[in-house]
Amino acid sequence: MNLTKAQKKKIRDLVYLNAGTIILAIGVYFFKFLNNFCTGGVSGISIVISHMLPSVSRATMNLVLNVVLLILGLVVIGTGFGLRTAYSAVLSSVLSLLLEKVFPLTQPLTDQPLLELLFAVGLPALGSAMLFMADASSGGTDILAMILKKYTRLNIGTALMCVDCFVAVSACVVFDIRTGLFSILGLLLKSFMVDYVMDAMENYKVFHIVTSTPNPICDFIMTELGHSATVTRGEGSYTHEERFVVMTVINRSQAAAMQKFVRKADPQSFMTITSTSHIIGKGFRGMTE
Q1: Tens digits of per-residue pLDDT, 220-240?
Q2: pTM attached to this predicted model
Q3: Are 24 and 131 in contact (CB under 8 A)?
Q4: Alpha-helix runs per DSSP H in the chain
Q5: What is the topology classification, in CATH, of domain 204-276?
């Protein structure tokens, strides 16, 4: 069965949405909750509030806060934060509650807090990156940031950072300096790990091929790799012979096949290959995204 690009994207988004949410929930429950790492987000707020209200578990508080914020978002913002975000927020909360019932834990998995901090930041960062790739987010403080943006002059990024910084710093007061410093460190790590993971997942190869026979190369790109190319005329500075420059952007997994074909089609060709993760235009990200 041949699927269209739109169908493939829907399937990919569905996989990213669910897998990202599951990975995020595992990171939060097994590493963030048990170590009191308040690295921002609703999970961080849940840790602080549950410490002050011991009768309420962190997973339960996480679910309650996410539902409250979703309702608040619907009232104040409307449906602007998206159905996928609402789905992910509820699913991650329910999964945390389910993990709490199936794997009840009262202390961290290891006695290495720095190691656990890396997992507490790394797994949610991977999950969040997958959600962003599916045009969603984990909700929570994202919705709170949108509300702040609506009634203040702060942009979403600044508003979100203000909320997360407040949560991280509060760990110093509610718990102790050690936990607070780990939380602040985790917040700093989280701020660039999501971007790093997204760049790694969306890595493409840009080919510039100088050749005298562009047609077979372009045919291979279009028929075998499913991409297009741009051809420009050029001239060798030494020989003054006519040359063509074929420029194309392909998936990282297709790069080896591309190199092999070009060497076979034109052994005298010249190639430069660079990596990029920000491709905007037809066939990739929309111009308005």
Answers
A1: 999 988 888 999 998 888 888
A2: 0.73
A3: yes
A4: 5-27, 34-35, 41-52, 58-76, 83-102, 113-133, 141-151, 156-174, 177-201, 214-223, 255-265
A5: Alpha-Beta Plaits (3.30.70)
